[in-house]
Specification:
The protein is α/β, with parallel strands linked by helices. It folds into two domains: 72 residues, no CATH class; 157 residues, Rossmann fold. It has ten helices and 13 strands. The longest helix is centred in the middle third of the chain and has 13 residues.
């Protein structure tokens, strides 16, 4: 659509944007109908609706999660994981979001639990800027600490691969799964140094760092002693054996998050359908 046609069409269709998004997010409209609506709708701020809560989302052109939830809310994106996250967020006091991206779980956590302290960690500068905007625009700043660093097993400066698909950025200098992108320099911090600096005792942690979850855990021995509940990603080509070893040694029980809820497993062995795991300290 050229600019002239778009100028004519926008005043006619844009008033439908909010009710149409509401209808898609609530499942009133089937997902296949999204192809009949303007593509530019996902690039502008919109409301995310949940049960007894809502928040505003400020997407960017690289925000794949935002583009997806505009059309389906949380009915499809990580559909098996979101309920688990919400359950643990509601009964937590301090949440660390490692690999926060544009802040979908950070914002969700701070909105649904008004007493929650949140620490959001995101190394890519432009993604961290989008995260910051989503936090500020929802008036969550006083309860959310944002750190533009990479979580790792040491403190310092490292090469970091900023992928063109920003959700695939990682500590792999040549790119996670050979993703196209560029290498930048970022500050890295251990989770242990972060909790010491902030004087916090997290009871819930999410780790999504594209294959470097074991590196993050290596810098979190003190954190693991605090016995937080953990949700982490485990892809087929990830360090699953190393994660299993570290978590079982720290007396964590491992649960694959499925459509039927968390299911106990003896080891982190990825399956095609699901990628997230709930790790619970013994006694929980």
């Amino acid at each position: 659509m050229n600019n002239t046609a778009k100028t004519i069409v926008r005043p006619l269709v844009d008033p439908l944007r909010t009710p149409v998004s509401w209808a898609f997010q609530h499942g009133v409209l089937p997902s296949y109908l999204r192809k009949f609506f303007p593509w530019w709708w996902v690039l502008e701020p919109f409301t995310l609706y949940g049960k007894e809560w809502k928040c505003r989302w400020y997407p960017t052109e690289f925000d794949d999660v935002g583009h997806e939830v505009f059309w389906s809310g949380f009915r499809k994106w990580e559909a098996e994981t979101v309920p688990v996250m919400m359950d643990h967020i509601r009964r937590s006091k301090c949440f660390i979001d490692v690999g926060a991206n544009c802040g979908i779980y950070t914002v969700l956590a701070a909105v649904i639990n008004p007493n929650l302290r949140v620490v959001a960690i995101e190394p890519v500068p432009k993604v961290c800027a989008a995260l910051t905007r989503n936090v500020i625009q929802n008036n969550l700043g006083p309860r959310v600490t944002i750190l533009n660093v990479a979580a790792s097993d040491a403190n310092g400066t490292v090469d970091f691969h900023e992928a063109e698909n920003t959700g695939m950025s990682s500590l792999a200098p040549n790119g996670y799964r050979s993703q196209a992108g560029k290498v930048i320099q970022v500050q890295c911090r251990t989770l242990d140094s972060i909790i010491a600096q902030l004087s916090i005792e997290p009871d819930f942690v999410k780790i999504d760092v594209e294959g470097f979850e074991d590196v993050v855990l290596s810098g979190a021995s003190r954190l693991l002693e605090l016995r937080p509940r953990i949700v982490l990603e485990a892809n087929p080509d990830g360090p699953c054996g190393r994660m299993t070893e570290m978590l079982t040694r720290s007396r964590y029980a491992l649960h694959l998050i499925t459509d039927n809820g968390p299911e106990r497993r003896d080891a982190i062995i990825p399956v095609a359908e699901y990628r997230n795991w709930l790790c619970l300290p013994s006694g929980c």
